[in-house]
Amino acid sequence: MRKFILVTLAIFPAAAVSAHETTPVSSSSPGPTVSNATTATAADVEALRQQVQSLTETVKTLQQQVKDQQAALEKANLTGESGLPPNPEPSPIAAAESSPAADASAPPRFPTEDTSVVASAAAPAASGTPGLGGFPTTDTSVITSEPETISSTGAGGSLTQPITIGGGKNYMNISLDGLFALAYSSARDLHNIEVGDHDPQQRGFNARNTELAFDGAVDPYFEGFANIVFKLDNDNETEVEVEEAFMQTTSLPFNLQLKGGQFFAAFGRLNPTHPHTWEFVDTPLVNGLFLGPDGLRGVGAQTSWTLPVPWYSQLIFASQNGRGTTGFSFRNPGDDGMFFDRITTDREARGLQDFVWIPRWENSVDLSPTQVVLAGVSGAFGSNETGANSRTQIYGADLLYKWKSATAEGGFPFLKWQTEVMYRRFQAGRGADDSFPVAETFHDWGLYSQVLWGFKKGWIAGIRGDYVDMQDSQFTDDLDRQSRWRLSANLTWYPTEFSKIRLQYNQDFLEQNFFLSSRQVESVFLQWEFILGAHGAHKF
Amino acid sequence: MKKILLILSTISVCVFSVQAKLNVVATLPDFGAVAREIGGDKVTVSVLAKPTEDSHFVDARPSFVVQLRTADVLIDGGAELELGWLPPLLQNARNPKIEVGKPGRVQASQGIRLMGVPTTLTRAAGDVHALGNPHFMIDPIIAKTVAQHIAQAFAAVDPANAATYDANYKKFEQTINAKLQEWGATLLPFKGQPIAAYHESWVYLAHRFGFNIDIFLEPKPGIPPSPSHLAEVIEKMKAAHVKAILVEPYHNRKIAEKVAASTGAKVVDVAQFPGALPNTGTYIALIDTLVSRIAAAMK
Predict the structure, then answer these.
(1) How many beta-carbon pairs under 8 angstroms link A with B?
(2) Is the pTM value of this prediction over 0.90?
């Protein structure tokens, strides 16, 4: 029995070796014989003996073949064929002419076949030629599922095949992104000046966005995504955020797609993206103050439909709980149970009106082979917690223009202009138990506009203007209700697409209102980032 | 109501015009050129990347989604060259016909033994492709195999015209076989000679015609040339008597010119993709141009 296992063990590597070449190994499956051998009658033993004998013979012939091949290989190496050492410098590849000529079709002087590069040349070519019109249409899936990645050296290279991350050989792409900033500000309360949760929040060093990203195909029907963010607060305590975790369909008919889980709302351009993809260190004011410091995201479901028209046009419709700070202008109980100075109600959903409903329609056309425009309108509608029947509506419009050179290297040079405008109608109620003296409706609006100029491979210069107009309340002195504007300029260097270093200057102007005096703040940030793991694809 | 009717009629027009011919999308212009040879007048071919731009970094523009949405066949490299931009496009296109494994999807690297497969994966080595060097279409012998896969895919998706695709493939194969004699003869005198290149995208051409292309202006793939590296390159080129530097349209030609000036080599404008150089609309024309330009510089 042991011998038998030994023999099978011996056969396996031998078979594996010979399988490298085109020898027809009819690997007469040792599997079933093993299972039969467990019930040993005399006849079985005899049968086994015969099989062992035949197997031994097979091994011998295989060994001979291996020897022959080794000899052939050595010969080939001597003549200088099949060069390509494992290191990057490709050796003097003497000639395709010398050795492959033997197996290639001899008549023409210059070889027209080369088995060292075309792995499957022999088989399909043979079957392809005779039939007129009858291509072997069957094998495409089989071939596709088995990418040939054996290097042309062949000799034993298979043992050191790399495990690729992002190379399609694994079930999941994993990447880790670290985003850090060194901040200086003339304000001692940088956390009141910067409106985003992942923006620098204190003078000195900040590490507010270390992000693990996972994605992959779940099965033939779904894809899965997850972004887990580790954030160090100003006291260096680690906070964990499930920023996104959702699945979406891959093969619904009629260009439909469904998505469910925790995800960023498709409101405008910036909101659905992760901080490390941003072109500035910090969140635009209007995004931070209307959609929230963490962006508008939450648990929910989304459906989208690409319209069957000749240009790109997509309708997206999502519904989310809209609860907590990630549903900032909606069912957000606020800090210490207060929002816009009202004691919030913080209740369970009463009905559909308490969810946030988020529609979006986006369109894109190519103005020329080098110019693209993308425009969209978005909305977010739901209840808020400042009164019994208080509602919030946010409307947004966004525009992106991009020019990229027809001879771009590494994506440079390019010019990109992006603008988002938002309007918010916020019904501020009388708070829990009608505790606040009046109900009022705020009409707030804001915008940002930014221009990025990638002037040289790896180098981008950017400027941005920000403005937010908050309707004055005569009753509250909430810091979030101060009208303000900001100018930013920055310079970013991408040594490669996996790292960046960015220097940014901000000038903030906070306007006075009934309660708050005006002030100016200057800030400087030095930001740096690294990405490990899977090669992220760049969405437009 | 009228508007809706109008929209519906445009939709139906779109659908019908699409069904008349096989709608083929190729990620890169070389696949597109070969697809045109095989498909002839039975297909319409659209190509996503421009022949002159860096094929590693193409913007995933929304209009590409529209093209992919209605594609019957998609031809991509399958070797991670389009890794940075194709996946989000396919996610948005939601077209089951061109999923991997379907007859409508051709991954050109199938059945090709890629060169330069890294034994260890580290980005310290620059922009390394895990599956091997993906610039394989420049080898005419490989192009034949890719053409065959394309013909098979066309026949599978559009069996009515299978005979045409087969005939076109055979014609393409014979043309390449004949042309290889010509190209081989032209380049024979320069066999074994060294050539410099800006980026490591010519291993397959070197292998085919027996050049020795192992001096690169980029210190590592995708990393811009540094002065110290260029000094080293100049030394090496002088020592090896290199006569030609291969530069692609999107590379910094000035750097190559400087190196050429201090070594006596010539800058040769080459391209991976049909259409990037004048009068190189077809695959054969591209290789013709490359061969004659290289031969001229090596004399």
Answers:
(1) 282
(2) no
